From TrEMBL, chain A:
GO terms for molecular function: quinone binding. The lineage of its organism: Bacteria, Pseudomonadati, Pseudomonadota, Betaproteobacteria, Neisseriales. InterPro entries: PQQD, PqqD_bac, PqqD_sf. This is Coenzyme PQQ synthesis D. It comes from Pseudogulbenkiania ferrooxidans 2002. Pfam families: PqqD. Monomer. Interacts with PqqE.
From TrEMBL, chain B:
Belongs to the radical SAM superfamily. PqqE family. Binds 1 [4Fe-4S] cluster. The cluster is coordinated with 3 cysteines and an exchangeable S-adenosyl-L-methionine. [4Fe-4S] cluster binds at C20, C24, C27. This is PqqA peptide cyclase. It comes from Pseudogulbenkiania ferrooxidans 2002. The gene is pqqE.
Length: 90, 369
């Protein structure tokens, strides 16, 4: 289970790509694809191997958002992506 | 789905060749295999990749036959990489060695899907007509992992190897595989020809379903398990290819353009062929691609069914093969008047025990069709 101490990274064979024709961003993986909205994309791009807690703290500060809301949203997003095989975690 | 919502496909599946060192009895290639002399050239495959990227397709699956039987595969992978396409190699693994894999990795290959007929040579050999395949596949798996490429292990299931599921998943877990497909054979092409010999029993299926459920819980977050059942045992049909001509475009070895790799059995449709037709013309303008797209073509009760935009009416090839009419209900649907008859036959076949397998071969169409 993911916690604020966990770190996540894109699973091998997964990449974030701009879908030019449909004007959106997608996570591409083996025989699967996930459409990512602007918020999810931002979170993925800011994720640089720091703990999820540290990532949330910096996002909360930058966007003046309540930390507990950011933590809930990011954990939910990363959990879904992990279960679908797009992310790996330590 | 209306015409105004028609968007380009997400992925293109290239059946580069029908040549393959294996002769699997469940192969979904057509009975009339395309000879090497009719295959498209390297330049033509590159032009197809150009068009796919231009249309907005995101993924390319290199398939076959055995795609590694094409000497130009690395060139095609490199071309796909330059175009920003996500590339997937669907392979038996038996032609893979360290040097060839290094070239493919260098070309930018993103992912390898490696198929197994189980881990027991005594079971796999009669199914595939290939001696020593398991050892070769295990060696291929080692190579792919050592090269650091993303890997999916595809376990193709029939009555003969269904009992190996637990062993197969244990092997995948021990090897740290992130994604496994537990893929019951679908009964098209050679698979349909051999259905009486291959289809598992419902008891086997129940055991598999229970195992997959258990395993998914155990490996959550480490290993993703995709599970495909033989649709004869489902109540509703599968959304074939995510809906006819909605997500995928297939190119056959000779350039024939199809919404699904089995669609050539629908001989009343005139499928376009590259290079006479572009991919975009086939997708957006051809009557064959429009024939079963969306819901407008559907008969009753499909057109009034709550599931019509989930299963898109199931599979047209199966409707033709099993009910004799491509325009009617897919008989695996419990609402089809042919359902009982079709499913009863499959259940009976599943109890037949050892039935001789007809391994795929190039001469079939000429001698028997």
């Amino acid at each position: 289970m993911l916690t604020l101490e966990s770190t996540v990274r894109l699973a091998p064979g997964t990449r974030l790509q701009h879908d030019k024709v449909r004007e959106r961003w997608v996570l591409l993986g083996p025989e699967r694809m996930l459409i990512v909205d602007d918020m999810a994309r931002l979170i993925l791009e800011r994720n640089r191997g720091q703990s999820i807690g540290a990532l949330c703290a910096s996002l909360a500060t930058e966007y003046a958002a309540p930390l507990d809301t950011v933590q809930q949203d990011v954990l939910a997003l990363f959990t879904t992506m992990s279960e679908k095989g797009f992310l790996r975690h330590d | 789905m209306t015409d105004t919502a028609l968007t380009p496909p997400l992925a293109v599946l290239l059946e580069l060749t029908h040549r393959c060192p294996l002769r699997c009895a469940y192969c979904s290639n057509p009975l009339a295999l395309t000879p090497a002399s009719a295959e498209l050239s390297t330049a033509e495959w590159c032009a197809i990749l150009d068009e796919a990227a231009e249309m907005g397709m995101l993924q390319v699956h290199f398939s076959g036959g055995e795609p590694m039987a094409r000497a130009d595969l690395p060139e095609l992978v490199a071309h796909a990489s330059r175009l920003g396409l996500y590339s997937n190699l669907i392979t038996s693994g038996v032609l893979l060695n360290e040097a060839k894999l290094a070239v493919l990795a260098e070309a930018g290959l993103n992912h390898v899907q490696l198929s197994f007929q189980g881990l027991d040579e005594a079971v796999a050999e009669p199914l595939s007509g290939f001696k020593g395949g398991v050892a070769k596949k295990q060696a291929a798996l080692d190579l792919v992992q050592a090269a650091g490429l993303a890997l999916t292990l595809n376990f193709v299931i029939t009555r003969q190897n269904a009992h190996e599921l637990d062993a197969m998943l244990s092997y995948a877990e021990a090897r740290g595989i992130a994604r496994v497909e537990v893929a019951n054979t679908q009964y098209y092409g050679w698979g349909l020809q051999n259905r009486a010999a291959l289809i598992p029993s419902e008891a086997q299926l129940d055991t598999m379903t229970a195992l997959v459920t258990e395993w998914r819980e155990r490996v959550k977050g480490r290993m993703v398990i995709d599970y495909v059942i033989p649709d004869y045992y489902a109540r509703r049909p599968k959304a074939c290819m995510g809906g006819w001509a909605q997500r995928f475009l297939n190119v056959m070895p000779d350039g024939t353009l199809l919404p699904c790799h089995a669609a050539q059995t629908l001989t009343h449709l005139d499928f376009p062929r590259f290079p006479a037709s572009t991919l975009a013309e086939a997708w957006f303008d051809s009557p064959a691609f429009a024939a079963y797209r969306g819901t407008a073509w559907m008969p009753e009760p499909c057109s009034g069914c709550d599931n019509k935009e989930k299963d898109w009416g199931g599979c047209r090839c199966q409707a033709l093969a099993l009910a004799g009419d491509a325009n009617t209900l897919d008989p695996v649907c419990e609402r089809s008047p042919k359902h009982e008859q079709v499913v009863t036959l499959a259940r009976r076949e599943a109890q037949l025990g050892d039935v001789p397998l007809q391994l795929r071969r190039f001469s079939y169409a000429m001698t028997e069709a």
